[in-house]
Amino acid sequence: MFHRYKILKRKKELNNRNFKTKSTKNAFKVEKSEKEKIIIMFKNSALLLNVFNRLNTNQSLLDENIEEFSVFIFSNLMKCKKEKVIIKNIDCIKKILQSKVFFKVQNTAFDYFKSLFMMNKFPKRLVSQFKEKFQVQLQNDQEFSRLFTTKYKT
């Protein structure tokens, strides 16, 4: 009888302690913003496809945080080797090029495109949009313009 009583008492203590720890964990839970979640997802290579799907469907999120996301998007295009992710990445870059706030990242985008061209990784699907958006930069950088037009005659 006494032994059973001790066991029941111990189980109640464990339940109370578990309940307290669960309640304290839930009480201090911090919600992350959508921007923070996406930046964390960019750093995990397994979640890149999810990130690009999310950005392709949510244009307003991309427009609001274009300066933060553009660096991740262009750098992922340089280092990524998975075909599905590259296709989604290119679609996301098209959305950036069509964005109303593209002027905020225009110089950064030109530098990344120039690097992609020099690395022979420039996506052919973006040639026409690149020429359209970066006419002024191509006129200022004669050497790059000559190389680019000889390779992509369109």
Describe the structure.
- It is a single chain.
- This protein has 154 residues and is mostly helical.
- The chain has one domain.
- The chain has 10 helices and no strands.
- It starts with a helix and ends with a helix.
String of helices and strands = HHHHHHHHHH
How many β strands by DSSP?
0
Main sheet record: none
Mean pLDDT: 83
Distance between the termini: 92 Å
Coarse morphology: elongated
Outline:
With about 150 residues, the chain is an all-alpha fold. About 75% of the residues lie in helices and about 0% in strands. It has one domain.
Overview features:
10 helices; 154 residues
Please write out the topology.
Blueprint lengths: L1 H26 L6 H10 L4 H10 L1 H6 L1 H14 L3 H16 L7 H13 L8 H7 L1 H6 L1 H10 L3
